[in-house]
Structure formats: structure tokens, C-alpha cells
Amino acid sequence: MSFASSDSATRQSAGDAITPEDIIAAGGKAPEDVATYALYLGDDALMLAQRLGYWISRAPEMEEDVALANIAQDQLGHARFLLSYAGSAWGKTEDDLAYFRDANDFRSCRLVEQENGDFGQTIARQLIFATYQYELFSRLVESQDETIAAVAAKALKEVMYHLDHAAQWTLRLGDGTEESHRRMQEGLYYMWPYVEELFADDDLLRDLAERGIAVLPSTLRESFDQRIQPIIEQATLELPNVTGAYGGDRLGRFSEHRSHILGEMQVLARQFPGATW
Amino acid sequence: MTAASATLRPTDTVGQELWDAVRNVPDPEVPVLTIEDLGILRGVELVDGKAVVTITPTYSGCPAMETISRDVIQALAGAGYQDSAVNLVLTPAWTTDWMSDDGKRKLEEYGIAPPSGKAAVNGPIMIQMAVKCPQCHSLNTREVTRFGSTACKALYTCNDCLEPFDYFKVH
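^ Those are the sequences you sent over. The predicted structure of the assembly is below.
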């Protein structure tokens, strides 16, 4: 991995980078395996924030510019906490991790990297991801890692809004006009092959879950289905019956979109190292 | 002062001096509210001559935290504490329940409807209480969009006086 080590351009406090009391209590350093888990969670949030930011000034109505930007800002907030915490394991800042890692060093899932498409496709991604995050954070608030638990507790309250926003739009589009129904349904079909990956376990997750730090993703699937299916049905939409997309895991096989997202996100920081704005 | 902030304000002289030095730092986005009104000022202490102020963000991505941190440092410097630091904590997570009654009154006078009701504790359903128009006090209002000009606000409009207004969401 090649990390730069310039000062963070977006520090959270006037003194040091983010310092939740629990980071201090833990000596300010995440154990390496927990740090990798924080990357799983933080990279998801960062990629989604970058994707959603695209909609500012492009959403179908001005209120949606604001709503999607608000959601992006929440996700960026989660990413900052999680990447700061992860970085403590390797002496890196949040900016080192966001701007100076290459595509194969990110640990995000493919769903959040999928293209925005039209508004229906974006809402489909939001519905799936917010439902997943809601179930995940509901359980992570009890994590044995105090920092992870604190971030989850903070994020959970925000994700409730995201889920409500996505559910309301799913209902409105699905049960709306013939055209809105068609697009919402196509959005779900486009995104659904990437659902399976959200619930895939790996060795790191199994180990951390055994110690009560992480939630084993496979154990979230049932509550995810129970929450999302009634919304899709009520919206008069079909639950896509598709197999998972081939490949893809958090350890290196990632979507073809990631490098493009990073190209946009990292260009300024890389071209002008240390730039602040 | 509300019960919540009264219990947070230290009982020792030094602590009270520190608390009073920073309590009036305004929220840059809702300048009628102080960080004490909002309930984001969580603690003050003097550690080896260094003034340490603890605050908590309203929303994870709240960009005002950086300005607030700088303003707190400046307020401390003004009170003679050159060596200071701002601590950002996430737990317990901020809730609008911590907003003081004084703060709610100031919000309404400023034209922003204060949070109506208490944040649910792990409740299965989010119940939305009626939101009172800060202009004409009508309860006949409707939500235009849940996401407003900042993360903590929603946009409402009054069905009686027809004025749009910001609503500080229960969180």
C-alpha cells in the first residue's frame, strides 16, 4: 500500500483529528483486525457518499437535491469516524486513507459502487443499502468494540431517516405511473445481484463476530428480507428473482466502477498534496 | 437552565469558570442557539493546566463542528486559557431531548419550529407530532421535505398563513 502522510485537510476538531473518548480510552489505537473491519464499514459509507453527491443539482426536484445531499453528508460523517479510527492502527489520517489508497486497497462492497443510473435506480440502491445498514447498526450498537458501538449508535438514528426516505420513494414510484413503476422495477433488477455480497461472511468477520466485535453478515439476511419485502410488495413491485453477480468480495475483487469513482474523488488531493479548501 | 445542562455544569469553581467561558459559543448555522442550549456541550475540565472541552456532534457529518471547535478554543483563550483542546465524543449520541427550554423558545422566536415531542427510545414506530408554525402558531402545517437546509432541519409549510419554515427535527 502506498499512503501519503500529509496532514488531514478536513480535521474534525481544532486540535487533533477525531478523538472519540473511547479511542482515547483504548490508547487511541485500533487493533489491526478491528481497523480492517472499520474499513469495510467506512469504505461503504465513503463510496456511497461520493455516488450520492453526484445528484446535487441533478435530482428530479430541488427537495431531492437537498435530501440526497443530506444523506451523502451523513454517510461521509460515518466514513470520517470509521476511517479515522481505522487509520489509528497504521498511523494514517482519514485523508490518507480516503485519498491516497489505490482501488485494490479499498474494502467497499459492490452495491455502493454501482452507477446512479436514473432516479429509480438510485432509490433502489438506497432502499437496499439503508435496509441493510439499519439491520447492521441495530446490532452493532452492542459491539464489544466501544468505538464501533458508538459510531453505530450515532449512525443508526440517521439511517432511520435514510430508510424512511427510500421506502417512501419506492412506494411513490412503484405505485405511481406506468413509467415510474417500470423504472423503479428496473432499478431493483439492476441492483439486486449485489445484495448477496452484503451478507457474505469471511474469515475476518467470523473471527470478529465470535468475539462480539462484528456482526456476522449472514445472520442479518432474514431480518433484511422481512423488512424490505413488504415495502417492495406494497409498492406493487416484484422481488427480483436473480442470482448473485459473479465474483466480488471485500478482499480485492471489486466492481469495475471503483477506479472511476476514485479517479474523481482523489484527483484534487493527489494533484495538489496538502491542499486545503 | 434546564435540568440536563444543570447537571452537566460542574460544581467546582474552576469547572464553572470554564463552563461559563464557553457556554455562549453560538451554533454557526442557528446563531440564536448556544452550544449549551443545543445540549452539545457535554463537559469541561482542567487537565494539568490545559482546558479540555467536550462536545458531541448533532449529526455525524455536521460541518459546524469545526467552526464550533475553533470558537470554543477562541472563547477559552479570551478567558485566559491559552492551552486548550476540544474533545469530540460520540457516546451517548446527541438527541434533541437535550435542547434546553430556553433554546426551544429562542428557536421559535427566530422562526424555526423547535422539535415537537421526545425522541423515541428504540421505539418501533416514529410518531410525528404536529409541528407548530413559528409565525402564526397554527398546528395546520405540512412537511414539504424531511431534509432541509441543514441535516438537523426539515422544511415545512403552514397551511393557514402559507409561510414556509424550518423545523428542527426530533432526533
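Chain A has one domain: 23-240+255-270. Residues 146-174 of chain A form the longest helix (29 residues).

Shout if you want it in another format.
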